[in-house]
Design a protein that fits this description.
The protein has 292 residues and is of the alpha+beta class. The protein is 11% helix and 25% strand. It has 4 helices and 14 strands. The strands form 4 sheets. Strands 3, 4, 8, 9, 13 and 14 form a 6-stranded mixed β-sheet that branches. Strands 2-1-5-12 form a 4-stranded antiparallel β-sheet, with no helix packed on it. Strand 6 and strand 7 form a beta hairpin. The longest helix is centred in the first third of the chain and has 16 residues. It binds 2-acetamido-2-deoxy-beta-D-glucopyranose. 2-acetamido-2-deoxy-beta-D-glucopyranose binds next to strand 12.
Length: 292
């Protein structure tokens, strides 16, 4: 068993050196597509995109788990608000298309086959024009999440024993079943106004210290219209307080764990009550005995 773990860890380390990285390439709201922002220097590209500016660079670098409680977790490295805000009607979907080209195990660039992790999307009210917001004051409520879903047959259930299956994660659904696209519904029962929409993909493929975990948070300025001004604003959490080094999914050993264990709840906070699916997701834990 220890040999299996060592081999897996070694493999993960090797894969990490050629790791695929990502960014939102296209954001769609109200039927209009906008480019993501992934330049290495923060210069207004003049594209009127609501995507926040970052110093993520051309290598699509992640924010590492060592920065869990640092400002880079808000909207990626050295982020500042876009000067632009776009309309996003309440009750309608927006979508994020993440960078990934080629096929798993082949000519893949961007996200990589070795990566597995959750996706989560949040909103925070700006209380004014989002271009002027102090990002450290933003309080985010969760509107969408997907983590460790299942262990379907195929590459998610490969390996010598079920304890070593990587499982099928929210990010596998995005990159391998939906061409890199994630759709998220803007809740209908939230007040109209300006919000920062924060989405992220993350990966725990590098086992070991929390500092090896990789996050790609991205933010966009939206103006919610057609909402419900009589609704109260859901309570939020600062992005720097969302995750803890002790969270079960952050300490989860991707390559050796209780067989069949699933958890579709991203840590940090519960789905806000205004999301229609808030009651349909439940934590499941049903370890099974496999004969080997
Ligand atoms: C809208 O987004 C939700 C997730 O919040 C998803 O379940 C639904 O399928 C999406 N609808 C469309 C038409 O893409």
């Amino acid at each position: 068993m220890s040999k299996i773990i060592q081999t897996s860890a070694l493999l993960a380390a090797l894969v990490a050196t050629v790791a695929g990285h990502t960014a939102v390439k296209t954001f769609e709201a109200n039927g209009v597509s906008y480019p993501g922002y992934y330049q290495g220097s923060k210069v207004d590209p003049g594209n009127k995109s609501p995507a926040w500016w970052t110093n993520q660079g051309w290598g699509y670098a992640p924010v590492y788990g060592s920065s869990l409680n640092a400002a880079d977790m808000i909207a990626h490295i050295d982020a500042s608000p876009s000067p632009y805000t776009v309309e996003a009607p309440a009750g309608k979907n927006v979508s994020f298309t993440w960078f990934h080209e080629g096929t798993c195990g082949g000519d893949e660039t961007g996200w990589d086959c070795s990566h597995h992790g959750w996706t989560a999307t949040y909103l925070a009210p700006c209380n004014g024009d989002c271009k002027n917001v102090d990002k450290t004051t933003l309080e985010f409520f969760k509107i969408h999440q997907s983590a460790l879903i299942d262990y379907p047959s195929g590459r998610y259930s490969e390996g010598s024993q079920p304890e070593a299956y990587t499982g099928y994660w929210g990010t596998d659904a995005i990159f391998y079943d939906n061409d890199g696209k994630q759709s998220v519904k803007i809740p209908s029962a939230i007040p109209n106004g300006n919000y920062v929409l924060r989405t992220e993909v993350m990966s725990i493929h590098n086992n070991g210290a929390i500092g090896n975990r990789q996050f790609w948070p991205q933010a966009f300025n939206i103006q919610v219209t057609g909402g419900d001004d009589s609704a109260s604003m859901p309570a939020g959490v600062k992005a720097t307080d969302l995750y803890k080094a002790t969270d079960a999914l952050l300490t989860f050993d991707l390559y050796w764990h209780v067989a069949g264990w699933t958890d579709d709840l991203v840590p940090g906070s519960n789905l806000a009550a205004c999301t229609s699916s808030s009651s349909s997701k439940a934590r499941r834990s049903h370890p099974r005995q496999f004969s080997s």
